[in-house]
Each structure stands twice: as C-alpha cells, then as structure tokens.
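Researcher: Predict the fold of Lupus La protein.
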Amino acid sequence: MADILTVSALNERKAYVSNFPLEFCQSEVEEYFYRFFGDEVISVYLKTDFVHQFQGAVYVEFRSKDSMEKFVNSSDILIIGDYMLDKMTKLDYYEKNKERTKGNKERRIRKREEDNARKKEEKRQDIIRQMTHGAVLHLTNIRTCIHGNRNNYSDDIDETELGYKHIKEYFSDFGRVAHVDYNPGDTQAYMRFEEEGTALEVFKQIGADKGNVLFNNCLVDMDVLQGETEIDYWRQVVTILKQIQRKKRVNQLKKERRMQRTSVQNS
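Model: Structure tokens for Lupus La protein follow.
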C-alpha cells in the first residue's frame, strides 16, 4: 500500500511536456529545464518508441506538487526555436490518453461493425442480382395431402417420390417448373418456377390469395415468397449451387489426376 501511495505522490509532482523537436537528445532537454527552472526540477524522462527514438514528449519531475502546478498553470509560453511546447500534469495526460484510447477502441469497433454491415449488404445485393424474383411458392400443411392419394400412381412408387412428382406435375400446368424443394416427412415444400413473377400469377390464378388452395383433395396453405423471406430462400439456393459447383471442380481435378497417372504408367 505504501508503494502505491509513493507512486501516486510522485505522479502528482510530474508534468507532461510535448512538441519538442524530434532531433533533441536527453542532455539538450535537461539543459532547457534546468536552465529555466533550476533546482525545482529533479529529473527529466524522455518518451521513446520501441526502437528508442525520441517521440518529442517528456515527463518532468518537480521538487513539489506546488512547483509542478505553478509551471503547468503559468501563462508563460514555452518556445524552442520554431516549436511551441504544450504542457499539462502527468495525471491529466493519463486521463486524456485514457479517453483517447477509449475513443480509438470505440472507433475501431464502430468501423468493424460498419465494415461487417457493408459486406453483409454487398452479399445481400449479390443474392438479389442472382435470384429470380417472384418465382417461389411456399406450401405448408402438405403431409396428409401428399401421402393421401395414390390412385394415379403405380404401387412401386414410394411416398416421397409420389409427393415430389405430385407437386411438380400439379404446378407444371401453370408454368415451367425449375425445382421442387421437399424433404421426406416435411409438412412444407418450396415450388420454384423458371420465370420471374410466375409464382404470384399462379398464386392468384388458383385462388390461393384467399389463404389456402384445394390440393390433392385437401386444403394446403400457400403463399408467395417476398421481401427478406425470398432473399433468405435464395441465399440458401445460391449456397447450395456453389457447393455443387465446388464439388464438380474437385471431382474434375481428381479425374484429370487419375488420367495423368494412367498416362504415365502406360508410357
């Protein structure tokens, strides 16, 4: 505890003086303070960087706190050549530096958040450029409808295949179907058309704008993907397509390497 008080007492007697010429050395700075302030100055410490280059600022320890405050509060302007020196207490400098560090940290955090938001928006706009707008229908509550009517299909077709085919064939009467997203056992499916705006036209044409539609002898809830919901769906589609393309490239490279090895072995 005594050591902490001693350090605190020493800091109360120190001033921070900056804007010295960078070419100054220890002896030149000491000479300046000793010449003008004499015995009131006990020591001068130069601030340097990690390679010991002078940074133009010093800590000056005075004989008493009163002497230091008199120096700092004096209206006298300290000038060395073309340089006007800045002065404040060491404690004030620490507080100011703490605020500056906090401000820098907050700016870094804010910049990182802005960069992340910008990158996220760039990816979002990229998805929007790639998507076919207004082309996806979302069907819910379809499990019983898919598995409930097998009259028009042979017995060797399983229920999963029947569900996929039934959805695709039903909507093929209204537009060119690009893909049906359906996982076995799910109660929902996504019906994607090839042409932009087709989903909304089909939605109105079959009367689903009332909230549901008669599908395979039962009511199915249906809506058109729009806004962020539509973008989120296409984000998944684009991700899957990229994974497929990446897998194709890897397989192609493996095939080329096998062919090269075979060619070397046969030569």
